[in-house]
Amino acid sequence: MDITLSYKDASIFYFMLMNWLSSVDWRQDEETQMDRRVGFAVAQLGPVHLQDTKTAVVVRLIDMLRQAHARGARWVTFPELALTTFFPRYIYETPEEYDIFFEEGLPSPAMRPLFEVAKDLGVGFYLGYAEKTEDNGVTRRFNTSVLVGPDGAILGKYRKIHLPGTVDPIGDLEFEHLEKRYFEVGDLGFPTFTTPDARIGMCICNDRRWPETFRVMALRGAEVFMLGYNTPTRNIHHPEPAHLREFHHRLSLEAAAYQNAAWVMAAAKCGSEDGFAMIGGSAIVAPTGEVVVRASTEDDEVIIYDCDLDLGAYIRRSVFDFARHRRIEHYGIITSQTGMEIDP
Ligand code: CDT
């Protein structure tokens, strides 16, 4: 009898086997449930040019919010500094020049239409923006994200802690990265927020390269990390091959998800903003560390996944049961020492 399979038959068999395997619940403990599924979307934003108005950008954000809702999302993650071009690439001398990029109040006038539509649709969201605020008569500026619940309630803010770049221009011929010039270091820590669907933590762009960011949120019970980013394709501070920019982005997300047993929602602002290229690669990563869906363009694009929050809970009861396995007596220098110090 000839039992040779054609390539097509073998492919069909492989596909059916994989489908069956992925439908089998491999989690082996009695607390495992399979019904804590929530639709999370990531809304990647293509380029926003210097001349684009905030009104026009918010129209694009609302359009993606509607798409996400139509596809079953309860939550949407938008990018860092989502309302304007990535202005820290430019040199401005006075607040009068750069305050046009900042928002005052929540929602700011520019954001209000997005807040209204989201509330009408019952969709919660993360939005990155440049925040200007008055504190005891002192003007302060932060690179901030806000978390708004599906009921329209403002759940809280996060102010970016790991600010990359410099205060003064380095004189690169193409562009600068002046986040340290325009923003203060965030002063809110890494808070997490309890919602009816999941406990959510927020961070912004460069924060994703630092494992402490996610561990602090995980210790506070975060089940979902939301993050927006603007990552220039070229690293002007530390030259490196372009492919490493995407690789390190993805590596950071996968490690954060796996080591903290949480879902990661990563939203890029990307493409060529007035000729300055930024990576795409928006993604949703499962607590297993696997990318489950990834944007395929460098333009406005919505990706969505039905996230099983019990998958993370299972991993936190097993491999990463922090209470059972962490050895804090050996971690002290992580918070007492910043740079490397070699024992004599
Ligand atoms: N926005 C942001 O934080 N971007 C940084 C670029 C670092 S290169 C100076 C990032 O980590 O992606």
From TrEMBL:
Residues 38-311 form the CN hydrolase domain. PROSITE patterns: CN_HYDROLASE. One of its GO terms (molecular function) is hydrolase activity. SUPFAM superfamilies: Carbon-nitrogen hydrolase (SSF56317). Keywords: Hydrolase. This is N-carbamoyl-D-amino-acid hydrolase. It comes from Roseobacter sinensis.
